[in-house]
């Protein structure tokens, strides 16, 4: 038993060894007999043969009369044949053919007459009869082993007299959440409480893969209690996930527990996120130690457990689809690990653009937003911006073709636009990345977005946006589309306890500021305001503390960890903060000509002009609404 | 209200009008609130916003000590800073940051000393802290309206304090089977009984589309009972399928019932199969009259009901994938209807070959076997063999690339080979079409198959197969691979009540023969035997009654509708028939050179040589096993 503590084994090698050991111990899909009616989507355990023929009797294929074909021989237009009532039986479609008959004459071809019927054409034996076994013959193989049962297969099985079928049993996976600070989901957690949602994520994933999840009660960080719960889960389930926290102390428990109950093959895999995974087992049952951060956990069970479930189910993993995409930002990776980087994808012109999402292993929203996964192999330093990389798709390519890519300045109204767009046309999706106004302009120059929200103040003349476009698009080729005027100001704790009256007060001792990132329009605004008022920004405590959205600045102030931050009224409003208005700025959309004619942008313009959008703005608050959707200026291509 | 009796309205027009009328009456997806934990795969009814931030408190991103960053300012390698125990708090990863602290120093960067710790580097405010809202900010939109909830979205929702979510309610579809002759599934039906399996097929389809089915008890052909059941279903469900039989009488009931309860838009659509469909409704609830034959029913509910369910669920139907394929046989279609033809698909070389399946609307197995759907528009006469047609895929293209295409003579051992292949490698599928030995040779000449089972007797010299290959492949390019010797003979009713002693007896008066189709090796054999014995085949009653497989010939004899048929021992054995051996013939596989090197054929050869295959043959019975899988002769390309 090769046990190593905190190894850095390659993922591929670890997977192969783990699978081999488990199969050697007898890991294999169990089977069960179920009713065919409940078998849709299940996998057959063996070949299935028909018990009876379908149809199981000779039946009339028409409405008409059943006859003995011999009696009709010789009938023609000129020499009709007369049949007496005892020579035929009236049949409807589907009726059984009476004994002594071997053909059916259609009702349209019969002339009624006294004491019988008259016919003008012969029928050959078995004409107009659905013969026994036309569909399926008894003894015929209906389904192979390891075949997925479809709705029509259910019909074929029942028609073939098969009412029960032996299928692969769904593997049962036990999930054990552990940790003193873990609490069941609630809307009102206390500081330090960690909401247990990994179990719900994992169980939904398992369900999609054809497994059944059992979530056990949360176990505190106590060796004996964890051990007893793992023992119970091993008893009751086919596979076990031990969801340990990521702190060193807790991990040691997990590994130690598994070693006492069974064996540990590896503790530590060369992947990021997901390194502290534990590949354990008790005889043929995998016991997988999964790190506590959700993103790490998802990757570990996707990489290690999913293939085992497919092996159990005798299914090949649907071959992942790969696409080439151009990286919008550099990705730096450690040589030590195989790294999984979530990316958003979108077609801008003919190029598929991949924008890396947050790589924090606690950032579950990054997984939700991801359209693709970029894998950076072990031993690779990463990729530069602009490089073409291969990305595994997490969403069908057809959806990506209808994705409106917004990269630029943040405003909550973007989410509302995304929602209105998708409500109107369920084929269209919108993805927003918040990189600030300057980031949006640079992205448009690199042809990586369809729209960019911008609000850039020219401090020479107090105008917005136009002079920046002239500078960065000297050859034109973009439109500036009116969106909204929006109220910028200082967001302050409710009731303004520090009595802040203006930007001048920000340098006051003991006051904690929270800022936006460099390149954002709001950062440019506060820099400008400080400059005009002669304030040294390094005198402002927290000026280097950067957040990427108005909402997150507001969230910091609401939490009490900062006293003031520059931002828009709607964000302050959302968190019920005090707000000191400073100016109304113009928030516009920059749209490159190539993007203008896409259905996504044209529908967006429609939405911008709609009453529904205006109603959304009223609800958010703090917006001055002029003529959203109007082209303010078209900088024609020269 | 435009009601027309047995119209022939175009499918497209009917669909649009039906949808418009229903939407006008208020047809729309209902919503319901459910627990987020149970929401995987469901569709949001509205945009969903976070209630709390995630993380919801400032937490340590490291194991270490929480400090006030200001206390560390100035610390360097040469000017360390000493912190007293009251200046810091020990924290683990995930712990809440205590009041008064705004940074964390990693445990690795701390030197313990008497009364406190010593540090050699300053930390900036908020360093090593996961700030509130790093993942999700309260008030942020987590999901759009009409968005499918994924496992990671479940995590994001719970992290955002959302425990309940309003989703589109699965529409409930009531299915009412009707008909005096309809009985619940059983293994032992009597002649005339029709097994009710449409309900099971439809309910599995509905489940795949995101609807819930309720199957009502079978209703006899009685107007009042049908009416009362439809009333009940309309009350209890969102949509109703009235599964009438296809005989005129029953259909009239359905249409009449719907007209009394609500309205009928059309009765009769220009599609085949599926023409007698009834597009009815009661206010906003569709009541669809569906023909009784399973294939017709599947097509009607796929074409008419599926789009309505997607409309309800605010989902666009996943865009069907179309491929170009070469038609292996002609398809003749009526100008009057838009026809749906099921086809098998397989890549032979680089060409995708489409082979039409049985078009009988009662042949449910044709739907189960179908890889694609060829639609022949109204007003088109059909397509010639060899024509390139566009086919809608019913199975992923990747699976088709691993499909072994067998077209040739029938033998039950082919099904066993298919099963052994798929058991061994779940990526490989095998599809068999039974067109007889000559059909197989012609198919190979047209490069439409990978293998062809053949057993062709050269009546000049009594040898098998070789002279035919020399004749039809004068330029070579094929291998003849040994399969089995198999016993051919006359299959007879158990106990041989008519005392049939040989082929000579077949012309006896009162004896009913059942034959194989022209071009099959078995037909050639019986033709040859009759010729050598001077028997006129038109003297044999039923000689023109053709079946396509050994099994179906056996099934006819077992049912008592024929007294004798030529076939192989294993088929007689399957039906416990008497068997009069006549000769042992060589059943071989013809494999074109282009197919030889494919992984499918190479695995097949391995299987042919395996002990498992020999065991299967023993079980089937009547085979002489030599060296299956050995190349008997390679006709090299010249």
Structural overview:
2 copies of one chain form a homodimer. Chain A has 638 residues and is of the alpha+beta class. Chain A has 4 domains: 11-28 and 171-312, MoaB/Mog-like domain (Molybdenum Cofactor Biosythetic Enzyme, Chain A); 31-54 and 134-168, Alpha-Beta Complex (Molybdopterin biosynthesis moea protein, domain 2); 59-130, Beta Complex (Molybdopterin biosynthesis moeA protein, domain 3); 434-635, D-Maltodextrin-Binding Protein, domain 2. The first copy, chain A, is 28% helix and 29% strand. Chain A is built from 18 helices and 40 strands. In chain A, strands 16-13-17-21-20-18 form a 6-stranded mixed beta sheet, with helices on both faces. In chain A, strands 31, 34, 37, 38, 39 and 40 form a 6-stranded antiparallel beta sheet that branches. In chain A, α4 packs parallel to α7 (294-312) and α5 crosses α6 (248-261). The first copy, chain A, is extended and about 115 Å long. Chain A starts with 10 loop residues before the first helix and ends with a strand. The model of chain A has no long low-confidence stretch (mean pLDDT 93). At the A-B interface, α3, β15, α4, α8 and α10 of A face α3, β15, α4, α8 and α10 of B.
Biggest sheet: strand arrangement of chain A: 16-13-17-21-20-18
Question: Could you state the oligomeric state of the chains shown?
Answer: homodimer
Specify the overall morphology of chain A.
Answer: extended
Mean pLDDT, all residues of chain A: 93
Number of strands of chain A: 40
| First and last CA, distance of chain A | 72 Å
CATH architecture of the largest domain in chain A: 3-Layer(aba) Sandwich
Helix content range of the residues of chain A, please?
Answer: 25-40%
